[in-house]
Amino acid sequence: MNKILTFTLILLFVSGCSTRGVRYYGGGNSSSYQGSQQNVKATMRPYTIRGITYYPTVVSVGDEFNGRASWYGPDFHGKQTSSGETYDMHDMTAAHKTLPMNTIVQVTSRETGKSIIVRINDRGPFVDNRIIDLSNEAASRINMVGRGTALVSLKILGFEKSGAKIIPNQKELDKGPKEEIITEFALQIASFSNIEGAVFTQKKYDGLDGYKTIIKDIPGERTAFKVWIKGFQSEAEARDYSANGKFRGAFIVKE
C-alpha cells in the first residue's frame, strides 16, 4: 500500500512540472509570476528561468528570425499565460521568450512552405534550440503536430491590443505602430566633455542585454555628451537594471 501511495505522489509531482509551469519575474527574483500583472508593459521586464535571464526586446515591423518551432496544447489549455490571458489551444496564439506581448507574427514552415499568423501572448519555449511555441491550432495548420517540431521563419507583421481574438489583416496592421512601445525611461551611464569618449562608450555597450545605447547632446553643459541606455518600458525596469551594479553612478532619466 505504501509503495502505491509513493508512486501516486511521484506521478502527481511529475505531472505538475514542465518547462512552462513556473515563470520568474524580474532579474533574479525567484517569486512565481502567475499573470497578476495585467499591464502589458510589465511583461517587457527581464525575467529569470532556471538561472537564465531573458530580456524582452523592442522589435520593428519587417524584422525576421529563423529557428525551430514547437507546440503546446491540452496540458496547458485553460491555464493562465504570462500576459494574464487564459490559454486556449484553439486560438491562433504563440509563446516567445523575448518578443513584446501582442506582437503579430507570420510563421512559415521551411519544410512545407505553409504560413500562419499568430499573436504572442505567452513566454517560452524554454529550450535552447526552440524559437517559438505555437498553439495546438496554429501547429495543426502547418502540419507539425505529429512531428512535434519544425524549422520555421518568423516575420514581424505588426502589433495588436491585448486579448484580441481576431488577427487583424495587413491593412489594419499598417495603421498601427511600426515599433512596439515608445521608450520613456533611460539609464544615464556616463557623460563626457568630448564626443570621442561618448562615442567609444556608446559603441562598447550598445546592444548589451538587448538594450540600445545612444548619445544625448545637451548644449550649455560642461559634460554635454551623455550616454544613455534605452529600451526600458517602465521606471521599475530601469531601476532593476541599474541595481545590478554594472554601471557605477548610473541614474534614471525620463525623455
Describe the structure.
The protein has two domains: 57-174, Barwin-like endoglucanases (Beta Barrel), CATH 2.40.40; 185-254, Alpha-Beta Plaits. The protein has a six-stranded mixed beta barrel with strand order 3-7-4-6-5-8. It has a four-stranded antiparallel sheet with strand order 10-11-9-12, covered by helices on one side. The chain contains five helices and twelve strands. 17% of the residues lie in helices and 29% in strands. The relative contact order is 0.15. Mean pLDDT is 77; it is low at 1-42. It is of the alpha+beta class.
Count of helices?
5
CATH topological fold name of the largest domain: Barwin-like endoglucanases
**Strand numbers in spatial order across the main sheet:** 3-7-4-6-5-8
Unreliable parts: 1-42
Content of β-strand: 25-35%
Q: Termini separation (Å)?
A: 67 Å
For CATH, the homologous superfamily of the largest domain is named as: RlpA-like domain
Question: Total domains, how many?
Answer: 2
Biggest sheet descriptor: 6 strands, mixed, barrel
Name the CATH architecture of the largest domain: Beta Barrel
Query: How many extended strands?
Result: 12
Instruction: Write the element-wise H/E pattern from the N-terminal end onward.
Output: HEEEEEEEHEHEHEEHE
Compute the CA-based radius of gyration.
21 Å
Brief overview:
Helix content is 17%, strand content 29%.
Characteristics:
Alpha-Beta Plaits; 2 domains; 17% helix; Barwin-like endoglucanases; 4-stranded antiparallel sheet; 255 residues; alpha+beta
